[in-house]
Structure formats: structure tokens, C-alpha cells
Amino acid sequence: MQQARVLTDAELGTVVVPCYNEERRIDPAGFGELIEGGLDVLFVDDGSTDDTVGVLNSICGSNPGAALLELEHNRGKGEAVREGLREALRQGAPMVGYLDADLSTPSREYLVLAKTLHDRADIEACLGARVALLGREIHRRPLRHYAGRLFATAASLAIGVRVYDTQCGAKVFRSSAALEAALSKPFRSRWAFDVELLQRLIKQGGAAGGPYLAREVPLESWSDIDGSKLGLRAMARAGLDLGRIWITRWTRAC
After folding, report:
1. 73/45 Cα distance (integer angstroms)
2. What are the tens digits of pLDDT across the range 198-227?
3. pTM over 0.70
4. In a domain, 117, yes or no
5. What are the CA-CA distances from residue 228 to residues 5, 169, 208 (Å)?
6. In a domain, 8, yes or no
7. What's the rounded Cα separation, in Å, for the pair 32 and 50?
């Protein structure tokens, strides 16, 4: 694994962007907007076989607020996110989070999440939520929307906390000992790692010894982008992973 160069001391911390064969889907201007807004961007290449690394090196070479961490082989999105978050914590980022490489969650929406957490000392995480309210631009394919609703309901039951949208690929966390502990071991799940991470944080508890406090923030805009790697087979595997997460919680509670 090639270590990332030291990033700048950005006010809003570091956003991790996992990448696997994203050569044709990366928008340099969109990530520039994040950097201009007060974030560092840490790309994590998960063993891509196309020219993703070349595109990312070009972005990083022209911007001191961007860096690249290369994994030696493909380990899955969850592990790419985990390694990126751990690297950002090692570099001292005050807040860390992750965002999908296709920017289905636009840069401006992630900035809202980061600024909300920055301004709210009473919470430890902000999670994007895709809620199709009147006046918001949330565009999801019907099949993925309804499958996502079923998955979110099952995820809430698995971890024992009501969460509307566990799988939105935009989340930001305040750096803490609880987060470091939650990231100390590899995720068991390749696709339901978001749920597994929440479960670990809930188990660790909050900074003052109370519950871990997270807030879901409805996004103003979100769009399905062609080329997503989350197909029906991956969703089925993620469902099985939820069962394992539920069993782990139930057996430990007993």
C-alpha cells in the first residue's frame, strides 16, 4: 500500500473518495469545489485496472488539497473507505468522511454536511439522507429506491437504531477515539459496511460516555449515475450481511 502525501490542514477536515475503475466518471471540477470549500480530498484507489490512477495523479499534481492512497489490490469499497479514514485520522484531520467518486451526492451537498457537523458541537456525525420531499431534486431509479427502503428498514432492525438511509454514500464524522476504535479492524461486509460502521460506533458510545449522537440531513439533490457497481447480486449479498450484523448484536446483547 502506497501512503498518501501529507495533506493540508483544511478547516472542514478530509473527505475520502474510494475509487475502482472510475477513469471515465471522475469530475475534477467537482472535487475542486470541495477543496475550495475548506476540505482536503483523499482519493483511495482500490486496485483499479484502468487509468484511474493516472486521472487521480493529474488531479493531485495540480492541487495541494488532494492526495492519493493506492491499495495494492482490490479489497472492496468498505476496506478502501476504512483505509482512507484511518489515513486521514493519522494525519490529524479534525473531521473525516467519505463520498462516492461519481459525485451522485454533489459537492455542495457534502459541504453542507461537513459545515453542519463543524457548527454542531453536540453531535458526532452527519449522514446524508435521500428523501424525495417536495422541492428537492432526488432522482433514484424506482427499483433501487424501493429496494433501498427495504434495506434501510432491515438495517434499522439489525442495529437497533432508526435510520432512514444507511446507504447514502455521503457521511462525515468528528475525529474521536470511538471512531478510531470502530475502524481498527477490517469490515466483515463488502457492501453493508456503512451499517457495520454505525453498529461499531453505537457500541463504542459518545465522547462523554453517553450514546453516539449522529444526525441525518436530507439532501437537496442527488442523482443515480450510470455505471454504479451496486447491482442486484451485491444488494442480495448486503442483505445477508445485515443478517450477520443482527446476529452479532443479538448474541452480544445476551
Report:
1. 9
2. 999 998 888 767 889 999 999 999 998 876
3. yes
4. yes
5. 29, 12, 39
6. no
7. 22
